[in-house]
Specification:
alpha/beta, Udp-n-acetylmuramoylalanyl-d-glutamate--2,6- Diaminopimelate Ligase, Chain: A, domain 1, UDP-N-acetylmuramoyl-L-alanine:D-glutamate ligase, Protein-Tyrosine Phosphatase, Chain A, 5 domains, nine-stranded mixed β-sheet, 25 helices, globular, binds pyridoxal-5'-phosphate
Length: 821
């Protein structure tokens, strides 16, 4: 609507493409590259980018969704898709960058470019908070700072904005030049530079030089002098503004002190005056980022008093989107700390990906985006809600209420959050997925509290980005065409049910597997449509399984006959089943001697069809057992070849679990079964650096703190002793939550405000005590039970078990919270 439109001829000229233009009247204003996230298909230009999967593979799907414009590498596609425009280029990413670089040059307002090793996103978000009241700002969403993220951010510039803020990140020499062409910053800000030079750069000097390329053409460059001390090459920027403790800095820091343990007072000299500001942060990284913002605001010409006041009101950057269980079978997506149109679009994408309920509701406050005329703003919001399939809008605030007529969906409005809270029961929210999206001043966390089930303050946080990273890591190990079955048995190894399955479905895994039929039924009821294998099909559950299209593992003649009988009653034919072969595990499955009998039963059985045949490796992670693994693989190959020949049709063959994927590339066959690797653990990296990310964090909190005198004891049977006396904290986790009683008396460790402390005394059922002598802590403080620092692997070792047992032992009463960053 307000975005500049491009015609096919313009695009051809800008990206220097050849190709077939069937429809010269096409109008382009939306860029697409992900087949799962299409909006505004009619005006979308799809770039077939090469990534883990080649974008060209998705052209058919995207065409079917209605997209008619494609940037591709290969002209051959054009002939298969009538009425579509194909722009053929050598490098599709370079074409995307060229188009957005062109788009950038249409605008003359200031553009701030930010780079550095750390702090880019925080500085960008804080500048947005600081300058937002005066400007209509376009900024990179989240941390979109890559070769793809930057062009997508810049594409959103339009003539209503008065200021742009984009971040840029690079990992190799030569990358920044491309980003510089797209962003063309008029103002440059350098954040922190890390000490080490990373892979990708041969020296610190080279790393800095690469980053500074972004500012080659900047009019003003703002940086901390210490990072460029000793830098030999020329520092860019027609004008420079420096800050730091050095004598000659433009903003010369003179003092930095803690105020009441919650804030930092910073004093400095600026233009011959003494000035100061107080920032509501105390950790070193936040303080540095805040000073960087202070310097930037001053460099932009804001008066010191005004700048200081703005900094006092900074609030933490919270990019997290949380998914929680709510009352009345609702799912709650909590994004209640920000409201602007670009973060709304991202949150709505996430809402749209949820399948557990049919209805999607948005609770939205006034959008406090200065600069854009309200008329236009709410028109854009209304279009967005339509594009993202929202069913109902609950608007909160006088502004959004005033523009109620622009919304054509099911809607209700309240003047304030208080009014909504009063009438909440009357809205009868039930069986729906609810996105909470509100500006901070609306205090939507009060709504979130009422809507989410408050149970127990111990939570297991699941980092969905990390889970996705791990999935992609294993995908990268697969041969082209190898399918992936994700194991979500036992409540996804303790991580959750449909929440994890939904993410896997969104990422297009091929199969899911559960242990029991009821786990599969739960997934079906939550909108999971992927094929699902059930490993322990029970005869009592056969009818339910058929009703929900759950596919059994057939491991014995008894199961085969019983299941066939159930199918015959329903006169079902060719029902998909999975045959399990026992090649050495000796748990479930047909052994070699049974193969002939199995073949004869299968070949006359019309009720079923063998979709896959599989076996399980007993020690894929253990180098000491490699000979046995090799023998299992050989045996599996022989048996499946015989079966395939006898049945006269082919089926999917699979043996590898997580460690099988990482250690046995030759055993991928047609599919692999990924389990614990998804959740961040792989036995084959036991003594090596693991490429996986930690997915789960178990957190609890302090109920009470006590000072003990020498000789006093802690807990049952006086097991906990502090001979010198000390300070203990009682925390809300016990063995009933899955925190083993064996971890008592100092074996278990927890993390309190950055310090690792031991348990003291025995672990009780619902709580336990930790020794926090010498640690600064107050009641209510968060306590980490495990995360990437206190590793589940180590806890498992202490307990003489494996991470699988620790993960799956966390009881269901521990609330699961899923988040995206
Ligand atoms: C659990 C399971 C897997 C997954 O094993 P991981 O080691 O967690 O990857 C694979 N196959 C079968 C049959 C399983 O039961």
């Amino acid at each position: 609507m307000h975005h500049k439109s491009y015609s096919p001829l313009e695009i051809q000229e800008i990206i220097h493409s050849k190709g077939v233009i069937e429809d010269e009247s096409a109008v382009i204003r939306t860029l697409a590259f992900d087949s799962r996230k299409l909006v505004d298909v009619e005006h979308s230009l799809f770039f077939a980018l090469s990534g883990r999967r080649d974008g060209h593979e998705f052209i058919q799907e995207v065409y079917q969704e209605g997209v008619r414009s494609f940037v591709v590498r290969d002209a051959a596609f054009a002939s298969n898709y009538p009425e579509a425009n194909f722009y053929v280029v050598e490098n599709t990413l370079a074409a995307l960058q060229a188009l957005t670089a062109y788009h950038r040059h249409l605008f003359n307002y200031p553009v701030i470019g930010i780079t550095g090793s750390n702090g880019k996103t925080v500085v960008k978000e804080w500048l947005y908070q600081l300058l937002g009241p005066n400007e209509n700002i376009i900024r990179s969403p989240k941390s979109f700072n890559s070769q793809l993220g930057v062009p997508l951010s810049v594409w959103e510039m339009n003539e209503d904005h008065t200021l742009a803020i984009f971040e840029a990140g690079v990992s190799h020499t030569g990358e920044m030049a491309a980003l510089e062409k797209i962003i063309r910053p008029t103002i440059g800000i350098l954040t922190t530079i890390g000490e080490a030079h990373n892979e990708g750069f041969s020296s610190r000097e080279e790393k800095i030089a690469e980053k500074l390329t972004l500012f080659n053409d900047a009019d003003l460059f703002i940086y901390c002098s210490k990072y460029l001390q000793g830098f030999k090459a020329k520092i860019p920027g027609k004008k420079k503004f420096t800050w730091g403790w050095q004598e000659d800095a433009d903003l010369k820091l003179t003092k930095n002190e803690l105020v009441e343990g919650k804030a930092t007072l910073i004093q400095a000299e600026f233009q011959g005056r003494k000035i100061q500001c107080t920032i509501p942060f105390i950790d070193a990284a936040s303080v540095e980022n805040a000073i960087c913002c202070w310097a930037s605001v001053l460099a932009l010409g804001y008066q010191p008093e005004d700048a200081g006041q703005r900094l006092e009101n900074l609030h933490p950057v919270r990019m997290r989107l949380e998914l929680k269980n709510g009352i009345n079978n609702c799912s709650i997506i909590d994004d209640s700390y920000s409201s602007d149109i670009s973060s709304l679009a991202i949150a709505l994408d996430f809402l749209r990906q949820q399948n557990q309920n049919d209805r999607r509701t948005l609770i939205l406050s006034d959008i406090l985006e200065a600069g854009l005329e309200a008329e236009l703003l709410y028109k854009q919001v209304a279009q967005l809600l339509e594009a993202k399939d929202v069913d109902r809008l609950i608007g909160v605030g006088t502004e959004i209420t005033r523009h109620r007529d622009k919304f054509s969906l099911d809607k209700v409005f309240f003047e304030s959050t208080e009014e909504l809270l009063d009438r909440l029961p009357a809205l009868s929210l039930a069986d729906e997925t609810i996105l909470l999206k509100g500006a901070r001043s609306f205090g939507f966390e009060r709504i979130s509290k009422l809507l989410t089930q408050k149970v127990h303050e111990t939570v297991l946080e699941i980092n969905m980005n990390a889970l996705e990273h791990n999935l992609n890591y294993y995908k990268s190990l697969l041969n082209p065409g190898t399918r992936l079955m994700a194991m979500v048995k036992a409540f996804s190894y303790g991580s959750g049910s449909f929440e994890v399955a939904n993410l896997l479905q969104f990422n297009k895994v091929d199969y899911l597997a559960v242990a029991y039929a009821d786990e599969g039924v739960t997934l079906r009821r939550s909108g999971i449509s992927l094929p699902i294998m059930v490993m322990n099909p029970d005869v009592m559950a056969f009818d339910t399984m058929v009703e929900h299209q759950l596919e059994p593992e057939i491991y014995s003649f008894r199961v085969l006959r019983d299941f066939t009988e159930a199918l015959n009653k329903k006169t079902r034919e060719h029902y998909p089943v999975h045959i399990k072969l026992d090649t050495g595990m000796h748990r479930l499955g047909f052994v070699a001697e049974e193969l002939d009998a199995l073949i004869s039963e299968l070949s006359t059985n019309k009720s079923i069809r063998v979709t896959s045949v599989f076996s399980h490796l007993v020690a894929s992670e253990d180098a000491g057992a490699d000979d046995f693994t090799r023998q299992q693989i050989r045996e599996f190959k022989t048996l499946t070849e015989r079966l395939e020949q006898a049945l006269g049709y082919s089926f999917i063959k699979h043996v590898s679990n997580t460690a099988g994927i990482s250690r046995w590339p030759e055993a991928q066959f047609d599919m692999v079964r990924l389990g614990i690797g998804l959740y961040g653990f792989d036995g084959s990296y036991k003594n090596k650096k693991s490429p996986l990310q930690t997915v789960t964090t178990l957190k609890t909190s302090i109920s009470q703190i006590k000072e003990l005198k020498p000789g006093e004891t802690v807990g049952y049977n006086r097991r906990g002793v502090l001979p010198e006396g000390g300070k203990i904290a009682t925390v809300k986790i016990g063995y009933a939550d899955g925190y083993s009683r064996k971890l008592g008396n100092g074996l278990g460790k927890m993390l309190v405000n950055g310090t690792i402390v031991p348990t003291i005394g025995t672990i009780c059922m619902d709580m336990c005590m930790i020794d926090i002598t010498g640690v600064d802590a107050t009641e209510g403080d968060e306590v980490i039970v495990f995360n990437e620092e206190i590793r589940v692997e180590d806890i498992a070792d202490q307990l003489g078990t494996i991470p699988y047992e620790v993960f799956t032992g966390i009881s269901e009463r521990v609330k699961r919270v899923y988040y995206y960053e």
